[in-house]
Every structure is written in C-alpha cells, then in structure tokens.
Amino acid sequence: MAGGLVKYRHLSRDSAHRKALLRNLVTSLIEHESITTTWHKAKEAQRLAEKLITLGKRNTNASKQGAQAILFQPHRHLPKLFNELRKRYASRPGGYTRVLRIEPEKEDQAASAILELVDGPKDMRLAMTAKSIAHARQRAEEEGKEFQMGDMTAWNVRKVTRFRKDGEKDLEAMVDKFERLFEDGDDGVEEVKKKRVYPNLQRSR
C-alpha cells in the first residue's frame, strides 16, 4: 500500500533474485554455521534462517517440505537441520541466530556483519566472552589480586551457557585455550576471526 511501512528490505533486487539470494545465504549458514555478508543482507537472511530452524524443530512431513523449498541442495542439508540442529535447539525457545556488525574491509564498503548460528562450534560470543575472562584472570594474577568477573562479562556468560549443552564446560575449555595463547605471546585474534565487533552491539542477538 502506498505510504505504508516496508516490511522487508528489497536489497536492490527483484523478488525472484532477492529470494534466491536469501536462500543461498541461509543454505551457506546451515552448512558453515557462520557467514560474512553485508549488514542488510544478514538481517534479512536471519529472518529466513529463524523460520528454517523452527521448521526443523517441528520435524513433520509438512515442515520438511517447507525446509526443502528454502534450502539449495536439500539432500545435503536436511539431515543436519532435522537431526543435529533440531537437537541443539530443542530447549531454546527462539533466537537461534545472531548478527554481529564488523568493520568493513574497505572504507567505501557497505556495512558488514557476521551471521552465525548460536551455541555452535563457531559461536563468536562464546569466544569473545572466553577471551575477556582469560584477559581478566591474567590481569588479576599480574596485579596479585583475586579474579572478579565484571557485570557485562557475567551477563555474557549467562547468555552463552544458558541453552548450550555443556555450556560451562565449553566456555572453560575456551578460556584455557586463550590463556595458553596469551602465555605464548599470541593475542588470540584468530579465535575471533580477526574482526572487531562494535561495542554497542555486544548485547544484540
């Protein structure tokens, strides 16, 4: 309707090309669990990815047909969606994906972002939280003080472990990994994909 609100971003494409683009992004997300694209594409793909994982959790013939219509090469990706991801998110009521804004590679490049599946092996918030804890522990040890977790770090710990199976164990393992890297003189940037997430988006899902 003229003058009405735009319910989605057109992404400078017609309907068919936009749909194909989002299907491709979501298929890559299911396969790799983390993709880098523009901010606007990531936000639109996130909506479709959330819908897709909801279909996977329903695990019915109708939901399988719906997922098949979204995914490219469904024979490759449906088993992961309806087995591994369905089990991973069984107790999570929503919020299966996260968009994190990152610095563009070039000054004239569009705003970039990482779209990732939460609670997976490439969960960036888990890595960032572990790195913060490792840094704080190292600093406390150097100053001869007792380690105390800050409010923001504690909030992030709850976020990354609440629905993750063996979340506290995985987090502690990642902290140990960063501590070993720091001892070897490595700042751990490889563990967070050499991207600096903007501070004002730390609390966005």
From TrEMBL:
* Organism superkingdom: Eukaryota
Q: List locations, semicolon-separated.
A: Mitochondrion
Keyword terms, alphabetized: Mitochondrion, Ribonucleoprotein, Ribosomal protein
InterPro entries linked: Ribosomal_bL17, Ribosomal_bL17_CS, Ribosomal_bL17_sf
Pfam families xrefs: Ribosomal_L17 (PF01196)
**Where does this protein have coiled-coil stretches?**
none
Q: Name one GO molecular function term.
A: structural constituent of ribosome
**One GO location term (cellular component):** mitochondrial large ribosomal subunit
From its record, what is one biological process in GO terms?
A: translation
Instruction: Please give the function described in this protein's UniProt entry.
Output: Component of the mitochondrial ribosome (mitoribosome), a dedicated translation machinery responsible for the synthesis of mitochondrial genome-encoded proteins, including at least some of the essential transmembrane subunits of the mitochondrial respiratory chain. The mitoribosomes are attached to the mitochondrial inner membrane and translation products are cotranslationally integrated into the membrane.
Question: Family per UniProt?
Answer: Belongs to the bacterial ribosomal protein bL17 family.
Q: What is this protein called?
A: Large ribosomal subunit protein bL17m
Species of origin reads Cercospora zeae-maydis SCOH1-5
**Upper classification of the organism:** Eukaryota, Fungi, Dikarya, Ascomycota, Pezizomycotina
